[in-house]
Amino acid sequence: SESHIALAMEKKVIESEKRLEQAQGFYKSGRVPQIDVTKAEVTLGNSKLEQIQAKNNLEVAKVNLQTVMGLEYDSFGYELDDSPELTIMSYQVEESIVQALGSRPELKSLEAQTIAMKANLNASKKEFYPEVFGRTAYRFEGKGAETPGFIAGVGVKFPIFEGFSRFAKVEDSRANLKRTNAELRSTKAGIVSQIKQLHLDLEFAKQNINVTKRTRDSAEQSLNLATERYNLARASSVELAEAEAIFAISNAQYMQAIYNYNINVARLERATGEINESQEQ
Fold it and tell me: N or C: where does the chain have the smaller number of CB atoms within 10 Å of the terminal CB?
């Protein structure tokens, strides 16, 4: 995308240069005032600034790509294929929400914590209950034993009052459970909101593709007409340069729209668990 933008800015500079040449020629022949030449010079200066920024963005994008690929700065010897593929995907909001709620690791962690908190609370409550125990033994001899045989007994052990430590422990367990449940509900709501937002972003990106494609197609037709007129000496070099710049800019916008759509698809798939961190690496 950055390479398309850099090319578009280059075409825009060429157009501005042609317009400046035209304005200077008209001024010398007395057809336009000096202010028109000044405006053309300002426009050319702004176009060159935009070109410098576009080239810088392209170099930054290459550096970022090298970093992701784990390459040394001076070892980038790849030729970039800046023609993104476009495959329109079909996703349903409710299906994405169900899939995300069933696969997000942070949600699974909170659910596991909730189960542990419930078990801890139940264990704390059991400390208030009497404990029933039993035991058996086989006695061969001893006081009161006429013959060998089994003996058995059942007992009940009541908890001794230990101040209010048990009450505090139960309340602490209950508070931890409430806090975890609240965090669980908040996380679920956040995931649902995120999935809905990603679907809206995806739909916006798809509509943007349609709009930019129509604009690019129109610009391409205008460029073809301008080229034919120029070849027949019916159009000036300024008109041709303008058509080339308009097409380059509209094409860059279309390429950017495709990139944005693909990025939104990847974000949605990651949010729903279709892409995990190991796959990204």
Answer: C
The more confident residue out of 110 and 245 is 245
pLDDT of residue 127: 55
Domain definitions of the chain by residue range: 1-82, 91-129+165-281
- Separation between Cα atoms, residue 183 and residue 111, nearest integer Å: 10
**Residue 215, both tokens:** 């604009």
Quote the tokens at residue 146: 């006429």
Q: How does DSSP assign 111-131, residue by residue?
A: HHHHHHHHHHHHHHHHTTS-E
Residue 274 pLDDT > 80: no
Reading the block at residue 129, the tokens are 């209950």
Phi, psi of 157 (to 5 degrees): -115, 120
Structure letter (DSSP) for residue 169? H
What would the two tokens of residue 85 be?
């593929």
Report which of residues 71 and 165 the model is more confident about: 71
| pLDDT score of 138 | 57
Q: What are the CA-CA distances from residue 146 to residues 96, 141, 143, 149 (Å)?
A: 77, 7, 8, 9
pLDDT at residue number 140: 56
Query: What class, spelled out in words, does domain 91-129+165-281 have in CATH?
Result: mainly alpha
Query: 177-183 long-range contacts, Cβ below 8 Å, gap at least 24?
Result: 177/114, 177/117, 177/118, 177/120, 177/121, 180/110, 180/113, 180/114, 180/117, 181/114, 183/110
Q: Which residue has the tokens 């349903």?
A: 92
Is residue 8 a contact partner of residue 247, using CB atoms and an 8 Å limit? no
Look at the pTM and tell me if it is higher than 0.85: no
Residue pair 22/242 in contact (Cβ under 8 Å)? The answer is: no
